[in-house]
Amino acid sequence: MYLHKIKIGNVEINNNIFLAPMAGITDVPFRVLCKEQGAGLVYTEMVSSKGMFYNDKKTKKLLEIDNSERPVAVQIFGSDPKIMGEIAKEVSNYADIIDINMGCPVPKVVKNNEGSRLLLDLPLIDEITKEVVKNSKVPVTIKIRKGWDKEHIVAVEVAKIAEKNGVSAITVHGRTRDEFFSRRC
Ligand SMILES: Cc1cc2nc3c(=O)[nH]c(=O)nc-3n(C[C@H](O)[C@H](O)[C@H](O)COP(=O)(O)O)c2cc1C
């Protein structure tokens, strides 16, 4: 395997093996173990910007970080650009990178216009990325799917918007929202 150092914005990362964000899985102990085993960058579970905004205790717990896991990317999700910006300002006081979730397919997220639902609203992606980048003191990245369904493959358009707004890196989950987790990439 070809290992190399990588830089996202001003964050130097030892190697190009990243632990993907996984809700219910990538908590502090899991991330620390992966770091010990050599992961270059680890991601938190996705964290609701609204949950943080309204001071939800369970949401706050998802934001715990152990210094041994740095650099760590905190993944936030939401659909309100102003709330996302506010939360980015706060999270960037302790995260090394802020990642925006634009790929979660689950109905309870999608019905709030969050996660992968953003892929059907490119102007909203424009606003959210602008607000988050403007308010964050650390590099901002996004994680998308290639599109909503095979009629709406938008990865390239989203990448152009992200680049224009100063997003530092993009991760693409090579499935559409329609494909959830099962169809081959
Ligand atoms: C249990 C589980 C939870 C996940 N949670 C998140 C998440 O919180 N945020 C996110 O961006 N992706 C999440 N994903 C997607 C993964 O990060 C990854 O993009 C996806 O599983 C594709 O990789 P694979 O084909 O190796 O499974 C999750 C995946 C799984 C299986």
Outline the structure in words.
With 185 residues, the protein is α/β, with parallel strands linked by helices. The protein has a single domain, classed as TIM Barrel (Alpha-Beta Barrel). It contains seven helices and eight strands. The strands form two sheets. It has a six-stranded parallel β-sheet with strand order 3-4-5-6-7-8. Helix 4 (81-91) links the parallel strand 5 and strand 6 (97-102). Helix 4 packs parallel to helix 6 (122-135). The longest helix is centred in the last third of the chain and has 14 residues, at 122-135. It is globular. It binds flavin mononucleotide. Residues 20-25, 45-46, 75, 101, 103-104, 143, 173, 181, 185 line the site of flavin mononucleotide.
Which terms would index this structure?
24% strand; binds flavin mononucleotide
**How does the overall form come out from the CA principal axes?**
globular
CATH topology: TIM Barrel
What ligands does this structure carry? flavin mononucleotide
- Rg over alpha carbons: 15 Å
Instruction: Kindly report the name of the CATH homologous superfamily.
Output: Aldolase class I
Rounded average pLDDT? 97
CATH architectural grouping: Alpha-Beta Barrel
Task: Describe what is shown at a glance.
This protein is α/β, with parallel strands linked by helices. 31% of the residues lie in helices and 24% in strands. The longest helix has 14 residues, at 122-135.
Write the layout of secondary structure elements.
Elements: E1 6-8, E2 11-13, E3 18-19, H1 28-36, E4 41-48, H2 49-53, H3 57-61, E5 72-77, H4 81-91, E6 97-102, H5 107-110, H6 122-135, E7 140-147, H7 155-164, E8 169-176
Parallel strand pairs: 3-4, 4-5, 5-6, 6-7, 7-8
Antiparallel strand pairs: 1-2
The structure holds flavin mononucleotide.
